[in-house]
Specification:
The structure is a homotrimer.
Chain A lengths: L3 E13 L8 H8 L8 E13 L11 H16 L2 E2 H4 L10 H12 L8 E9 L2 E5 L2
Parallel strand pairs in A: 1-3
Antiparallel strand pairs in A: 1-2, 2-4, 4-5
Chain lengths: 136, 136, 136
């Protein structure tokens, strides 16, 4: 069985701040530092979607990258691009938009729409020097 | 046992089109879209060769990167660089040159020439935003 | 259990040469080539520190990246940055400073200072085309 991983990169820009509503402003500042400043800041988020499976005998594709790209646009990019994650999205109304949590949410948005025979992994770059993988 | 992975990047440029000979032109166009246009298109392919093993006690090397680079030049780059994969190579005369299939072929070209105690993995970038790993 | 990997990139510049003291100059030249030239050469080393664990329920962090970055500065960068690895560091007085060995040393410098519940992995780029992972 020849399992291959295919990767597709997409991106979105969004504002956020790290902030836990149950905590005081002082507690937020002490834990999250500049990332908690009240007027938000932004990132150029890069998403790397990894899909693992056997290439189809006829097409040679694990999954059509055009279809994967369209799916990510529809389920993820159209939701988050140029939004304020804390204010404008249902997902992060109460959930702290750390890179870890954003990657988990992106996984959960895509997983139901990808063939169950394929494994899915998300890498999210918050900056070129800070990024996360889910699942690890 | 201290297993280390060492990586070496190499590159080649080649033309290809995605095309299944057993299908009609219409079927190819419907499945592969612009990637099937009849006059071919090209990519700057980047290959990342990963070799895993224990560093040699004396040299501190898992494998001499110069020897690995020379091997990749001889077995892979000299075959595919500046070629039309569909027309000019034995490997893709009938096999559709998807990134998945090219990565599998590169693995098979290199595997016999690398010490059996070492594991081998291939990553192939078709573009900076589309890439594959084999084995996954 | 939702395990997430978080990555932080840091960098340092250093001189080194590949050289095994128990060998003659000729044997070193034959094995290490230009990497063994007597007057040293340098690299812009990039370190990618990967830490794997469950995000904290309150903060949404696997580990505070600011704390990780500070730790890497203190334990690794301050030791190696702008140094001659062969001449100026205890670690490589007798150990050959291959990328493999540098990655293992960085792992050993950091591991005692990271929560035992978290897994640690090091990637070291010697150049953009030559890099290693430890553990593999």
């Amino acid at each position: 069985m020849k399992r291959v991983a295919v990767y597709r990169k997409e991106h979105f820009n969004a504002a956020h701040r790290l902030f836990r509503q149950q905590w005081s402003d002082e507690a937020n500042a002490a834990t999250f530092g500049k990332c908690s400043l009240p007027h938000y800041h932004g990132h150029n988020y890069e998403i790397e979607i990894k899909v693992v499976g056997e290439p189809d005998k006829e097409t040679g594709f694990v999954m059509d990258m055009k279809k994967l790209s369209d799916l990510v646009q529809e389920k993820v990019i159209s939701k988050f691009d140029h939004k304020n994650l804390n204010l404008d999205t249902e997902e992060f109304k109460t959930l702290n938009p750390t890179a870890e949590n954003i990657a988990i949410i992106i996984f959960e948005l895509l997983r139901p729409h990808i063939d169950p025979s394929l494994d899915l992994f998300i890498r999210l770059y918050e900056t070129p020097r800070n990024f996360v993988d889910y699942p690890a």
